[in-house]
Structure formats: structure tokens, C-alpha cells
Amino acid sequence: MSRKTLWAVALFLGLGGSAYSAIPAAPNPGAKCPYGDATPNDGCTALYAAGLQGTVQFPDAFTNPLYGPGNGQEYNSRLQENQAGVDFPVGLPQSYVGKLKDPMANPPANCAASPTGSAAKGPKLTCGGGPVVIHGYQFGPTGGHKATVLRVNNTATIEDIQFNEFSNDDNTVLSSNANDYAIYLAAPGSTFNSVFSHNTVNGQCHSEKCGLNYQVVAYTAGSKTWDYNAWLWMPVRITAGCGECATIGDLNLRWSMVMGHDMTAALHGEWIEEIFAQKGTPTTQAHTNYIGNVVIQPAAAAANSTANIYVSGGSAPITPTYSDVLISDSTLICNRNNGKPICSALIDFQNGTYSRVRFINLAVDASGSIGMFRADCNHGTNYQKANFPTGVTMTNIQNMLERPGRSLVTSFNFKNKCSSEQSPP
């Protein structure tokens, strides 16, 4: 059945060879932050100043055809600012390498370790009943046991999860299959603020046929501050929301590398699906910020599977309000799988009123995407129109396949009449 959609900008890019020269060299090649520190939303200098530079970096992300420029093409431009996981390393800090603790042998305060507590009868750490602070732990296989499932209950008062490494094996796979999620950052009914930063999360799914599951879920009415993470080879999407709440805290997803998310298309996937309320209460979020991220769907991901960034208010008849959405200073790339498009869109909106939306300083490659920016008008019977009362402001949206300095689009008003599968212009 045809999906009725409004295609904001739907362009098939770069179907032939590149016409211009390759990306110019950085102004300070070899420096820790090769593009300097003059950009306000550039997270490189602050990361090094804190001594928290990570262990995950893909310096060839914009030149390796497995990651970025597919179809025998090359990129000719990029953002002139440091990009997470490309120009500077993110994820688990280097200072923690070789020092991570075993959560089964040394559980944090307000957490209980159970060697056979998961749905797969493997290790599980369950936290709650006060502040939950988890710093410097190895949640992958360690200490002679399999990977550890993490659950934070709604009795937690704060959540501070930083400087950890998470990895996937059959314990987290089978537990996720049984809805005992591999990383359950907030169980339903939670109200605490979530800090999840400087972590490496590796779903170990390197191709569409990996046969794995590894679910990350967070249902809290509090804010989410998830910075400087490395999200690698994730089989399925991350899901977040608040259950039933009138307001939900700010969403801040910043300075992270996302290399491969929803690799299998088992769930039509996105980096994060922010479903506000599942029980019928309209919800408002004051600020929704995606800043300084690199989100790449590589050539090995399943075709027609995903959107790089997805903003959704859940299913009808709930109609939430996003007061201020900012997507800025980021690189969004969607490759092709054996010539087939992998993404439905680079940025996709569903079901909600979006009072203010800004796209600022984005470098994009949509050559593996059916559309570039999309807003659903009617997604079957379960989703309602995405409304943009003031349109969308776009500033410096750069097509990476074009010559440097050539902006792709400067503005677009989403307040057009819905149409059915509008063809690319």
C-alpha cells in the first residue's frame, strides 16, 4: 500500500561520476582538532581539554566507499569544522582502556548483579532505588562470563552512565529477543534525567544478514543528555519515550559517531525513535537537539531500512508538540547496498506539531536515500500528519558531492498539501 508522504527535498544525487576535485585539506592537518576551535558547536577542543578523547575514530569515513562515497564517486566538500569520530575520537576514553571493571564482580551502588538473571540465563545488572552512577565498566564479555544485560528501574533518582564499553553476544541477543533489552536505560514510569556519555556501544552487526538483535530502550519523562558516544554496527534502532507524561525533558544527542544503525531492517530503523507517549497523553518537548554528530549508513546495511535521524510523536490519536527542533553541525550519509537505496530519508518527521525547526550547517550525501528530508502526512492508519506551522529554516546545507561552498538548499516550507509518493524533482 502506498505511503502518503510529503517529500520536502527528494533528490537522487550523484548518479554519475564526480565532476570536481576531492575534499580540500584541513587548515591544520595533523593537529588534534584539524579544523580549529572557532565553531561554537564543535566539540573537539572541549573533549581534549577534559582529557576524555575516545578510542573510536574513522578518519577515512569520507573517503572509504564502504562508509561514505559509494557508486564510484568521491566527496568534494565537507563541513569546515571538526566532526565526531572522523576528526577526533569519541566513545570510551583512552584513559579507561585496560581499567574497566566487571559489573558482576564489582557492581555499582544501588545495583544488583545476577550471573543468571537475564532472560537468556546470563549476567544481568539491575539498578534503582536511588542514584545510579555507572562509570568505567565493561558490559561486554569479561571475567569469564558473557556480555551483561543492563536494566535501570523507575525507582532510580538520577542516571549517570559514562566511560563504559558495551558489546553484544548471545546473552544480549537472546535477552533482547525476549524484551529483556540489552541496554534498558529507563524502565516505563521513570522520571529521572538520563546522562549517557563517553560510551562505546557495539552491536556487532556488520551486515544485513548478521542475524543479531541488540536493543537500547529508554522510557523516561526526564531529559536525555547523550554526548560523545560511539554507536557501532547496531542491528536495530534505539527507542525512547516517556510512557504517559504531559511534558518530557530536553533531548540532547551531541558529538557522537553513529556507524551503522538498524543494519538488519528487522525494525524499520532510525538512530533514535523518540516516541513521546504510548498511553494517550499529548506530550510537549521544549528542546530537541541533534548537534555535531556523524551518522553513516554504510554499504553493508539493509536496503530500504532506515532514516539517519527520525523525529516521531508515536501513533495516533496522540499528537505531541516539539517546541524547538535543532539539527546542526552534523554529517548525514546514506550509502547504497548493491545499487539499492538504504534510507527512506536522511531526516524524517512523523506525527506531531513542530513549532520551530532549524537545519543549520549540515553536510549530506543522500545518494543512497529515496528522499533527503521527509515529513509524513499519513502513515497508514496509525500515524498522523507532521505539522510545521512556521516551516523549516535551513542554513548552509552542503551536498558533499558538489564543489566546496555550494549550498544545496537554503529554505523550504513544509506547509504544502500532502501528496502520494511525490516524485523527486
The oligomeric state is single chain
Helix share, percent: under 10%
Please identify the structural class as seen in this structure: mainly beta
Net shape = globular
Strand share of the residues?
A: 35-45%
**Count of spatially separate domains:** 1
Give the C-alpha Rg: 21 Å
The end-to-end span amounts to 23 Å
Biggest β-sheet strands, sense, barrel: 15 strands, mixed
Tally the beta strands.
37
Total of DSSP H or I helical runs spanning 4+ residues: 2
The whole-number mean of residue pLDDT values reads: 84
Residue stretches low in confidence (pLDDT < 50, at least 5 long) are: 1-21, 410-425
Account of the 3D structure:
By secondary structure, the protein is mainly β. It has one domain. Helix content is 3%, strand content 38%. The chain contains 2 helices and 37 strands. It has a 15-stranded mixed β-sheet that branches. Strands 4-5-7-10-13-16-21 form a 7-stranded mixed β-sheet. The protein has a 6-stranded mixed β-sheet with strand order 20-25-30-33-1-37, with no helix packed on it. It is globular. It starts with a strand and ends in a 5-residue tail after the last strand.
Put the structure in a nutshell.
By secondary structure, the chain is mainly beta. Helix content is 3%, strand content 38%. The strands form six sheets. The protein has a 15-stranded mixed beta sheet that branches. Strands 4-5-7-10-13-16-21 form a seven-stranded mixed beta sheet. It has a six-stranded mixed beta sheet with strand order 20-25-30-33-1-37, with no helix packed on it.
